[in-house]
Amino acid sequence: MAAAALPPRPGADATVSELRLTSLSVSPGGSLNATLEAVLEIHNPSPVAAFVHAAGRAEVYYRGALAADADVPPGRVAARGSESLVVQLTVLADRLAGHAAQLYDDVVVGAGDVPLTVRTTVPGTVTVLGFLKRHVVVLTVCDVALSARRAGIQSSSCRIRTKF
């Protein structure tokens, strides 16, 4: 009876709906610091199950190199509900030092679009009818082109996977 009440694939999905460069500074020594703001949208398609998630992780990669990371705050998404989470990521120049020439080409020489991959991991529990529980992890990988000249994402493509 309990197995019939628990949907075969309960869970949630997450996408990066916005990614903005919120601050950029260059020190006299030439080091670059930037802050990115990512908006993570978590949607729970289940008509009967709530999704309570613990703190997760968000990571930003530039050409395969980890450029920034941050914690995703915990929260709760009601059945058929959605939640928007804002995550601040600080990009440090030392993480991008090996890609300085490529970054310069992307921002200055090219169209100004910086190719990034944003990965999020959000662990949580799906609860049906208040007592049937199942642990899930929502994994999202989004390839985005962040414009250094115009505000925000110029293009994006996301892949979502839920592990049970």
TrEMBL record:
UniProtKB keywords: Membrane, Transmembrane, Transmembrane helix
Signal sequence annotation: none
BP GO terms, sorted: defense response to other organism
Chief subcellular location: membrane
Keyword Transmembrane helix set for record: yes
Domain Late embryogenesis abundant protein LEA-2 subgroup: 40-133
Entry annotated with the keyword Transmembrane helix: yes
Stated name of the protein: Late embryogenesis abundant protein LEA-2 subgroup domain-containing protein
Organism: Zizania palustris
